[in-house]
Amino acid sequence: MKLYPKLALSSFRKNGRFYLPYILTCAGMVLMCYIVRYLGGLPQLDTVRGGAMVKSCLGMGVSIIGLFSVIFLFYTNAFLMRRRKMEFGLYNILGLSKGNLSMLLLVETVMIAVLSLVLGLAGGIALSKLTELLLLRLVGGESGYGLLVDLNALGSCLALFGVIFVLLYLNSLWQLRRANAIALLHSETVGEKPPKANYLLALGGLVLLGGAYYVSVTIEDPISALGLFFFAVGVVIVATYLLFISGSVTLCRALQKNKRYYYKKQHFISVSSMAYRMKRNGAGLASVCILSTMVLVMMAGSCCLYFGTEGSLMNRYPRELNLRLDFETTADLSLREGVRGKIDGFLDQQGVTPENPRELIMANCSGILEGNKVVTNSEGYGVVSLTTADLRTIYFIPLEEYNRGLGLQETLEPGQALVYGLSAQEYPSLDIGGAVTLELVKTVPEMLTVGGSTVDVAPSLFLVVPELGPVLDQLNTLPEFSQRFTIHPIWEYAFDAGLEPEAELTLAQDLKDLLWDGAEAGQYSVGVDSREANRGDFVATYGAVLFLGVLLTVVFLFATVLILYYKQITEGYEDQSRFGIMQKVGMSKGDIRKSVNSQLLTVFFLPLAVALTHLAFSFPMVRRILMLFNLWDLSLLLTITGITVVVFALLYFLVYTITARMYYRIVADGR
Fold first, then answer.
1. pTM for the full model?
2. Which one, of 446, 454, 447, lies nearest residue 317 by Cα?
3. In angstroms, rounded to a whole number, what is the distance separating the alpha carbons of residues 354 and 357?
4. What is the tens place of the pLDDT at every residue in 582-610?
């Protein structure tokens, strides 16, 4: 039994260039998993506004890191097994049976697992306090001074990565069992046949990619963008792999047919080497492209949300205080004047002068827009309404209120309406639930709003009607309204108070207490929103999104760098003998460097170029999804996206420079 640990340690020393990055990768995944799991259990989050949302985001992060760890560690383990197969074949010929080799693999796997878990958990515990301080700073919480070890997080990581290492061992064992000694010895020199029907696969990839791009560019509705986003991501991933695997083969064939290009010493070896292993090479490049795209989209989106927090808060709450009263009937609206006087009197006593006041009478319901008809029966559209582009939130506003609020003098006849959010030329009339039919006489350029409509998931459709009462009476005769709920008239009153945060919170509670007697008497239901009261939720949510985005970006960046590293090292050893032969027949090291640069520049920057293309075409969809979070600042999104692209491109070029030197040393100097 002592033989196996000695052989394993000897293998680690001889293949340190391969094993060290792999062990560091495993340790890094364990570290990230522990940190996110540890942060999700912080008791301080229970006292932070929006703490539940932060915990939800971190819980999702644990799932993503766990799933990605399985996929990525299997991917990197495949590089190691390809390198080790020749060594195993030699051991097999020298007398070690496959049972002995299985024990050797088991010892190596256990040693790697123990080392990775120890390093990862130790690093996670050491960094947990720093990340705790960072997270709580982002979400507006306060941290203590003690360094704690979360036993639940520790146990979760040990269980998760214990299972992963068992699966890795079984996968390696399966590969070892199905190969004979000769095949193992020649595993590194066996070429891969290009996939068949390259042009058909390439065409399919182009069609899928073009379809996903078209959807992203043409989609207008934010809720539809959110519903289609993950489907579009899946399509883009499949299309990218098809294009890189089949398209790269097609590219090599085209270069080989171009005699003026191919028959030059700096191109001949590089193109033939790429064609020799293009299927695996294409899959690796596609993985780099997908990971790069994920990094760019994730960082741009999460940074934009965080740095646009104040703008999102202002869009959601245009005024510091927003009072909403839901009346039972339109006749009860007569109470509004008395309530308004009560509010103004109280504010005067408190020495508060309402600034930028705005009030609005309205009513609203939801429905599906089908042609010139709005289907209001929820049983008619069910769950699909949450993702359809035709879902609308409809607001009815009386003409008198509209004219007063905007200082206009519009006129309407009974049965007519002004519309905002729809073209009156395209929709000359609108049938709402079969109960109300309105002639849309004009599309208005501006609508009177208080801010509540900005939180609607569905697009808003505003209808200015001559009087509110008749419309609501007709709609409330519909079974879906009369049997389940009633459309009520709503009065909203919003204003700025110009107070300090704590004073604003106190005033909001005082106003709610002031109006509560009417609510208890059944005259209305009351709600008071304060911008400051909701600021904590915004900061906590967007801070958690940024924190999780940064952690996942680090994970994906690490994966991208490691794939590129293994790709260069593995291919360097595979090309070493070919370049050695060419040196013997007169090829200089300068010629080798030119050939290396030709090969790397041909394929290395292709994933970056395609990733930037993916980012450009996904930009409209990402922007519309951000609108659901009340982020409308296009200049902020463009600026942050541009900075993200520049920083990532510089990092990518740095990786290229380092790995290109390593590849050159392997093929030119045999090191």
1. 0.75
2. 454
3. 6
4. 666 666 666 666 666 666 666 678 888 89
